[in-house]
């Protein structure tokens, strides 16, 4: 019989240090007990300085490093002999690399979900054709040098194109989709990654669509925001889109998708969209403060006002609230054609307002609304 093999496999030697064994297991096992256990495994242990030298048989290919020998000792010594102790250590006071607090993102997702939106997850790569259909410039996008196909060639700079494209494969009449994820922008310094929150709505009621935006800004306690109807995004409708700002900081854009874009994608009807910057929301959001409930009741009344076309009712409500410190709130309760019913709360924390004082406040509100917006009280 002839045995042909590349090399002879001989038993190898492996050292197990007593200090290393104690460090691994966390307990001190008597040296004699360690030698006895290793002998029972046919490892031929011999005592050396600060440890024991073992001869590993060729059939024990699983014993390769010192920790393997420590595991064998612990197994035969008995895990039930180890004391029950909680792991010791300390919590680091430094943030780990690439730390990200996703609390705000989860809040935005929960708010959009409560408005009836469903979360979508689109790829970060888009095609040149989709970029051009939305009126964007491919040169302002990062291009992948070795794309798997032309459909996944460029890094997205907005979440809107992917969400609008999803309309074609979702046939719901009132489709509500949102996405919170990264976009990739070219800057003077090179590249920048930003988290955006975006959503699309295919229903016919613009007010229902805008509710989600108002809810996010309200729950994050972002006060004093305004809308400027001068959106510069090429895929938005020229006369039905705006930019959301607060104190000079642009939070995002919202409005109707351009009919030209929808026609190129063969999407019928209207599609509304919004996109907001997560960093801007984070910097502008504030903690909510509470004050004691006044002991004196508020005077509440509804005023039906008539305004010229295209009046921004949000600005009207802000004007009413800022008209006097005794006006604590104003809300839009109902609309009919060019008439708007506004509910106003008058309240003095120190006393109950009289009818004469309430009438004086009402006249001041009507005068301010008429001078600023041309609105008047409907008979």
What do these coordinates show?
The chain has eleven helices and 16 strands. The radius of gyration is 35 Å and the shape is elongated. The chain is α+β, with helices and mostly antiparallel strands and 379 residues long. It has three domains: 12-81, Phenylalanyl-tRNA Synthetase, Chain B, domain 1 (2-Layer Sandwich), CATH 3.30.56.10; 103-284, BirA Bifunctional Protein, domain 2; 299-377, Alpha-Beta Plaits (2-Layer Sandwich), CATH 3.30.70. It has a seven-stranded mixed beta sheet with strand order 4-7-8-12-11-10-9. A four-stranded antiparallel beta sheet has the order 14-15-13-16, covered by helices on one side. Helix content is 29%, strand content 27%. Helix 1 (18-25) packs across helix 3 (66-77) and helix 2 crosses helix 3.
């Amino acid at each position: 019989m002839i045995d042909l093999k590349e090399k002879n496999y001989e038993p190898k030697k492996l050292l197990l240090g007593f200090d290393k064994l104690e460090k691994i297991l966390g307990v001190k096992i008597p040296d004699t007990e360690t030698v006895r256990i290793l002998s029972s495994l046919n490892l031929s242990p011999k005592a050396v300085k600060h440890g024991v030298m073992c001869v590993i048989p060729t059939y024990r290919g699983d014993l390769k490093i010192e920790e393997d020998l420590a595991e064998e000792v612990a197994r035969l010594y008995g895990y039930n002999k180890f004391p029950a102790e909680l792991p010791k250590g300390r919590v680091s006071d430094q943030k780990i690399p690439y730390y990200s607090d996703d609390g705000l993102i989860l809040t935005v997702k929960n708010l959009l979900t409560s408005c009836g939106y469903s979360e979508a997850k689109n790829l970060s790569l888009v095609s040149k054709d989709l970029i051009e259909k939305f009126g964007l410039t491919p040169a302002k996008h990062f291009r992948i040098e070795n794309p798997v196909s032309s459909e996944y060639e460029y890094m997205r700079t907005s979440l809107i194109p992917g969400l609008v494209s999803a309309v074609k494969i979702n046939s719901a009449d009132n489709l509500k989709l949102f996405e919170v994820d990264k976009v990739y922008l070219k800057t003077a310094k090179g590249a920048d990654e930003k988290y955006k929150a975006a959503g699309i709505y295919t229903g016919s009621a613009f007010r229902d669509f805008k509710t989600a935006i108002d809810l996010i800004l309200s729950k994050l306690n972002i006060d004093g925001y305004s809308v400027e109807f001068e959106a510069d995004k090429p895929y938005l409708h020229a006369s039905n889109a705006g930019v959301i700002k607060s104190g000079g900081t642009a939070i995002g854009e919202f409005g109707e998708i351009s009919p030209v874009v929808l026609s190129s994608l063969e999407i019928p009807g209207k599609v509304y969209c919004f996109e907001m910057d997560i960093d801007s929301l984070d910097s502008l959001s504030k903690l909510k403060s509470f004050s004691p409930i006044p002991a004196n009741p508020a005077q509440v009344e509804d005023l039906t006002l008539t305004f010229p076309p295209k009046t921004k009712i949000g600005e009207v409500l802000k004007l009413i609230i800022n008209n006097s410190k005794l006006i604590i709130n104003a809300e839009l309760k109902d609309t009919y054609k060019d008439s708007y019913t506004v509910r106003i709360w008058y309240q003095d924390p120190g006393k109950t307002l009289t009818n004469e004082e309430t009438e004086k406040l009402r006249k001041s509100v009507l005068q301010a609304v008429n001078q600023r917006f041309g609105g008047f009280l409907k008979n």
